[in-house]
Design goal:
alpha/beta, seven-stranded mixed beta sheet, two-stranded antiparallel sheet
Length: about 250
């Protein structure tokens, strides 16, 4: 197997079979399923069927990611939904950072999703746009990565050490599409937002809350975590609130 497509250790997709309620768990930009495994395992312990796919170009190498586009990431999510639909009667979607952006994209384009739980989702990142604009016409292909924005000491996110400049363009494009269609979302939503986030401005989550059309929506502030909240001090709170949210809708 070529080096560029070898999977990083602990970046494997995960699938936990359970009942007829499925939860799709989506990792973030340059990240891996490692960041979502704790949440996925805890949801599975509640009896739900849980699938955490690896987005195309992730979990391998920055050079591999450089060859992918946002449509590939959307396709990865679509393929995962098809797998869950084979055994589940109802599906919820949660995701971290760009995984949250993709969660919103799913809700904008599918009326069958029962509920969404975006975590520090990105819809507008001025600093990233500024950085990309300064690099787009240069020879620079990679810059330092954005992983491991975590408050708890000793915890590391499994993510690329380098970010492809070309991939920044893809994330910006995806975010702009999702931001422009937020009002289409009518599905119940529980929106998680770290009060201090060095990657995605917390204002993103407030904008999502204000812009979606869902009657059933809640904004949950994470006071003790940075961007990768699913690995941080509030990870148990996220689990608790997600389970409460799903059970409140399914009445299981």
């Amino acid at each position: 197997m070529a080096e560029s497509i070898e999977l990083m250790e602990n970046a494997e997709e995960f699938y936990f079979p359970g009942n007829k309620t499925g939860v799709l768990v989506i990792h973030g930009f340059t990240g891996t399923t490692q960041s979502m495994r704790f949440l996925g395992e805890k949801l599975a312990e509640e009896g739900f069927t849980v699938y955490g796919p690896s987005l195309k170009g992730h979990g391998t190498s920055p050079k591999d990611m450089e060859t992918t586009a946002y449509r590939d990431w959307i396709r990865s999510v679509g393929d995962a939904l098809e797998i869950l639909n084979k055994t589940c009667d109802e599906i919820f979607v949660t995701g971290l950072s760009m995984g949250g952006t993709l969660t919103l994209y799913v809700a904008e384009n599918s009326s069958s999703i029962k509920g969404i739980m975006p975590i520090n989702a990105a819809v507008h990142m001025p600093d990233l746009i500024k950085t990309y604009d300064s690099l787009r016409d240069t020879e620079t292909r990679f810059v330092d990565g954005i992983g491991s924005d975590i408050k708890q000491e000793g915890v590391e996110e499994l993510a690329y050490a380098k970010t492809p400049v070309k991939s920044m363009k893809e994330l910006i494009a995806l975010s702009m599409i999702v931001r422009g269609n937020l009002s289409k979302i009518e599905t119940p939503a529980m929106i998680f937002s770290s009060t201090i986030d060095h990657v995605v401005p917390p204002e993103n989550s407030q904008e999502i809350y204000d812009s979606i059309s869902s009657d059933d929506r809640e904004l949950v502030k994470l006071e003790n975590s940075y961007h990768v909240a699913t690995l941080d001090n509030d990870k148990e709170l996220i689990v608790e609130k997600c389970v409460e949210f799903v059970r409140g809708i399914t009445k299981n």
